[in-house]
Amino acid sequence: MSASTTENPTVAAPAAEDQAPPPPGRARAALLNPSVVAVLTWLVFTPIALLLERAGNDIDPFGMRGAFMPLAAGGVLLALGFAAACWKRAGEWVAGLGAGLFAAWLAFALQTALNGTPFGFSGLVGDMSRMSASAVRYTEVFWSADSFVKDVPSEYPPLFPWVVGRTSLLLDIPAWRLLGVAEVLLASLSVVAAFVLWRRLLPAGTALVVSASGLLVWGDPRKSFAVIALFVFIPWVICAFADPARGRLHWLPAGAIGGLIFITYFGWYPFGLLGVLAVAVVGLLRSPTKARYVAHVLLSGVVLLVVASPFLVPYVYGLLTTGGQGVSDLYQSWELPENGFPFLEPTILGAVQLVGIAGLVWYRKRSDWAWPMLYLLVGAYAFWVIMGVRFVLTEHTTLLHYVPRLAGAVLAAAGVITLATAAPALARRFSFATPTRVGASVVVVALVWVGFTYWDEWRPRPWLAGSGVIAERGNHSTFAHLEPQPDCSFPRFAPQDGRIPCLPVTAIQESVEGVRGADSLPTVLSPDERLYSYLPWWAYMGSDRTSASSLVRWDDRRAELSRVVDQRDPAAFTEAVDTMRYGPIDVFVLWKSDSPDRWAIFDETFERAQFDPAVWNVDDTLDGSFVVVTRKP
């Protein structure tokens, strides 16, 4: 008997049934960790969600049943999650369950939007044509490679298309058919990945809402690789370089995560560079063991560079040996003058972001999360202003229309954390008795808001098909159905209005292979980059200047093409093609013009007489507006 019981016999020992349950064992505690629960739930329920979607593949995503399917599925999962939260033995693991279920529902909703089409979001319009080409390229090439041009390393982060391309080989499914599924899975995974890192900084329920609410700032499924990089980047900076209460990430996982972010989408590094430097400097000044902090940062950086080296090494080597022509940032997005201050939008999200600004200022000295997020925000806007001045002076945008997405994500997260921190403090301050399960109810309402808003913005909308309003988010789902397949047939639910003109890829392939053989990988000049979205052929150059890698030297290749076109004598023309500075062209895919013997590409005009019949095979029998000229072997 204890001394306290002996000295105070009126205090009885607690009954066995009233005693607190013993702490769970190590294995059980690990399984009940919210992050582990989130990952396991996502791994189990996401395949089930996609299989259920496939079971309803006769449902038109443009119809009312197709539109309501995600809402019905979401209602079921929401009821399950809320019932688990109301269980008397529920703990923080329920938030992990909610993160996994919400992410699985997200995959179901996005895949429902693509029901009936083999394409990903936006079909092969714009950037998605190039992403498909990159995935197809990695079915033939293992190391870093440009989407189009031979012997040029990638300037764009290669991890996402590389995984799609190599998976294509394993499953024996064309890479362009896997792109949509990959977009869906990565967009879904972004919520879970963000939750795992935010959970190191926040209570599990708050981490769940923060992770989900990022979708409303920027959840573009076409760019799901950049979305997951953004969602992870913000908590990673705090976990790796600030001083969170639960401790910094060890330098090895910190560097590994940073490297994976870099080769998935490195844009957040320059956009957030000034903020990250500020966080590191303040982290050093605050650290009681400065030498250890410096070692941590350096070791993290070394691991980051090692993980990113398959992309960085060939790219840097290419810059040093051949140089480049920076033309891709001459693209001017409509967002440039419009999206700079998302917190001023008269929406719920705008209000949350405005609260986030107040929270970052108020809690900067009262928390371990506010000050690093404040530095990220200020650094992002400093970059935006500096590069905005550069844009005015040079017309080079540095893709600064992406910067407000980083700022908006920081503010949305800060707003949610501020509300989650301030509301209980105010309730205590005014002695307000909160209702039972109020926390779970708030999380449920937040997820309903995020899920419904996100789905409503991204579901396919047939009435947009022919409107020409390509900035509408719903059009990106619609375009996935309006894109013609290689044989010029359309997906089964494609609206009649607004169908995209076909590039007869199958006919072009048959024409070229009929001359050069089925195993040929020719170098092609084509006015339509969709050709490379299906076939691993090399391009002499892409057709879009403002998307070209600097290592491709697009302007120089264009000038060389003009020199060759000027050679009108057949022998001189063939010799000029054979001796082109960047290698010869094997196949010309050209537009037909008003004259049957004159064909065009860019603003150049070719004539039938230039192509010696002994060297070139001219096929002008294709349906549509194209002529294929193939060099004989």
Overall description:
- The longest helix has 32 residues, at 290-321.
- A hairpin with a 6-residue loop joins strand 6 (616-619) and strand 7.
- The chain has helices at residues 3-7, 26-31, 34-55, 64-86, 93-113, 127-137, 159-171, 175-198, 204-218, 224-241, 251-264, 268-286, 290-321, 348-362, 370-394, 403-429, 438-458, 473-482, 505-516, 530-534, 554-565, 570-578, and strands at residues 523-525, 538-539, 587-592, 598-601, 604-607, 616-619, 626-631.
- Strands 1, 2, 3, 4, 5, 6 and 7 form a seven-stranded mixed sheet that branches.
- By secondary structure, it is mostly helical.
Structural class: mainly alpha
The ordered string of helix (H) and strand (E) elements is HHHHHHHHHHHHHHHHHHHEHEHHEEEEE
Number of helices: 22
Shape: globular
Fold blueprint:
Layout: H1 3-7, H2 26-31, H3 34-55, H4 64-86, H5 93-113, H6 127-137, H7 159-171, H8 175-198, H9 204-218, H10 224-241, H11 251-264, H12 268-286, H13 290-321, H14 348-362, H15 370-394, H16 403-429, H17 438-458, H18 473-482, H19 505-516, E1 523-525, H20 530-534, E2 538-539, H21 554-565, H22 570-578, E3 587-592, E4 598-601, E5 604-607, E6 616-619, E7 626-631
Parallel strand pairs: 1-2, 1-3
Antiparallel strand pairs: 3-4, 3-7, 4-5, 6-7
Defining traits:
633 residues; mainly alpha; seven-stranded mixed sheet; 22 helices; 57% helix; globular
